[in-house]
Design brief:
Helix content is 69%, strand content 7%. By secondary structure, the protein is of the alpha+beta class. It is elongated and about 100 Å long. It starts with a helix and ends in a 6-residue tail after the last helix.
């Protein structure tokens, strides 16, 4: 028996065309299964983007009394700037705070007109590298001797801190659960798809069990019989994966822009690079599933 690789490729192609109905069924099954995995990966990425966007809005504001010494403010600012958990620290003067307030309340000028003087405090605005470290950074500020000197509520300095105390723990607990649910969902869908694809390949090979038996009777080795089937399984899986990639690209460039417009109040992003990475994963996973599924399915018919 010849072991020329070209022979196996020709045999796989011939079998693919001769059994085109079964091949088409396998391709459609693999396409739908990989498409579900791809969509779940895209949804997981979008949800993670939304969660990251929400978490990035968590920051710490340190409100400062009007007669605080400039040196003390700078001491606390330098201390926070050197903190590895802090991304940036910006000082907002009373004048700038008032200008920002007027801009925010531009739709209700009567509120601005009723202000007597400038009641807004100056502040230090602390942006974090990782929003989940907010409690640690707040503890650092509270433990600073300088903070008690400049806080606009010296009798209860913790009232001079604003970082969403009431919701930040619930927010991170919720986003943690959301990420966990997304990972579990993708894994479950992946396992179900693998089982589905494997069963499809097994059925296709079962329908050709007599062909395999004849090849064994004429003395063909296991690998000589197995190789064309594995190549055919890879070919079916790669075609199914490419169809899934084309559909995902259509979803990204056709449906996602409309979704962004529909929920413009929620910022999320799905870059082309992420889609390319998902596409590569699907094609490689499809080829491996096709090869491994064919190999597993044929073991029963190649036993002596």
């Amino acid at each position: 028996m010849s072991t020329n690789p070209g022979y196996f490729i020709r045999e796989a192609g011939t079998s693919f065309k001769r059994n085109w109905v079964m091949s088409l069924g396998a391709i459609i099954t693999i396409f739908l299964s990989l498409l579900l995995i791809g969509i779940s990966l895209m949804i997981s990425t979008v949800v993670n983007s939304l969660v990251t966007n929400v978490e990035s809005k968590v920051s710490v504001q340190v409100f400062i009394k009007d007669d605080a010494a400039t040196q003390d403010i700078e001491v606390l600012q330098r201390k926070l700037v050197t903190d590895p958990l802090v991304k940036s620290v910006n000082f907002t003067s009373k004048e700038l705070a008032l200008a920002d307030f007027k801009k925010t309340m531009s739709a209700s000028p009567e509120v601005v007109n009723n202000l007597e003087g400038n009641p807004l405090p100056q502040s230090l605005d602390v942006e974090l590298k990782d929003a989940r470290d907010v409690e640690t950074v707040v503890a650092t500020i509270k433990n600073s001797d300088t903070f008690a000197k400049i806080a606009d509520h010296p009798e209860a300095p913790e009232k001079s801190l604003k970082y969403g105390q009431q919701i930040v723990k619930k927010l991170f607990a919720f986003t943690k659960i959301l990420r966990l649910v997304g990972i579990v969902f993708v894994i479950m869908l992946g396992v179900v798809s693998l089982i589905f694809i494997n069963n499809t390949i097994r059925l296709a090979i079962y329908a050709r069990r007599q062909e395999i038996a004849i090849m064994r009777l004429v003395g063909a080795s296991n690998w000589f019989i197995r190789a064309p089937f594995i190549l055919e399984g890879i070919l079916q899986s790669v075609i199914g994966a490419l169809l899934a990639v084309i559909t995902l690209s259509a979803i990204q460039y056709g449906a996602l822009p409309k979704l962004k417009v529909a929920i413009s109040f929620m910022q999320f992003n799905l870059s082309s690079m992420v889609t390319i990475q998902i596409s590569i994963v699907l094609i490689i996973a499809g080829a491996l599933i096709g090869a491994f599924g064919s190999w597993i399915a044929m073991r029963k018919y190649l036993r002596v």
